[in-house]
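Thread: "does anyone have the structure for this chain?"

Original post by V.I.:
We have the sequence but no experimental structure in hand. Need at least a predicted one for the grant figures.
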Amino acid sequence: MHEPRKPWTPQTRRDLREVLAHPSHERAVQLAGSRNALVRATLAAAHETPIGVLIHLSTDDHTAVRAAVAGNAAVVTSVSTVRRLAADSDRTVRDALRANPAVPSALLAPGALALV
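Reply from O.Q.:
Generated one for you, tokens below.
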């Protein structure tokens, strides 16, 4: 029987930078499972992170991770994720989304949230 895979965690900042420069989908999924919130936030901010991983990270318990997703230009490919982040209970996350130039202002309008 196979042992469950443990989340891969980079051993150095250099390892993390190299992986984030061109993350494979598998490596991004493994990093998203890291116990280290800084690793998850760094992954959430990376431009090459697959949208499926960003969607997963948008529900993270740590505000810094959700705020990093909100600031990532790629998040606009998931309208439901943008709307969820726009309604986040933490102001830091909402502010990061508003500051993201890739997010259309129409998605941030008060009436747009009624469509969630």
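V.I.: this helps a lot. The longest helix spans residues 13-21.
O.Q.: and The CA atoms of residues 44 and 69 lie 5 Å apart.
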